[in-house]
């Protein structure tokens, strides 16, 4: 692992995992993810065969590097922050209605709402 100018380890370039929460309600599944510092157009959500994947476009890293001349004149003393995210995926249950999934991204927080298929919802039956 690379060393910082102060002798610490360089952790800022390592990909980090996108933290997520997955919640189930009576009518939906909700996936929440925090991806601070990434523009909305660089966040992709894919669903394939019941697997939901959150991907951050790697070109966002290249755009933030700046021009080479400025970079040659500076020296990183310590780098712990990273915007290099590994793709994150979660398997959704068969009761998830994947065709009706919706996602919104506000201030670095991604919220994906997936309704349940009608048949999967619990309902009460009157006994006569």
TrEMBL record:
SUPFAM superfamilies: HSP20-like chaperones. It comes from the Eukaryota. Residues 63-83 have a biased composition (Basic and acidic residues). InterPro entries: A-crystallin/Hsp20_dom (IPR002068), HSP20-like_chaperone (IPR008978), Small_HSP (IPR031107). Keywords: Stress response. Residues 11-128 form the SHSP domain. Residues 63-91 are annotated as: Disordered. Belongs to the small heat shock protein (HSP20) family. This is HSP20-like chaperone. It comes from Coccomyxa subellipsoidea (strain C-169). The lineage of its organism: Eukaryota, Viridiplantae, Chlorophyta, core chlorophytes, Trebouxiophyceae.
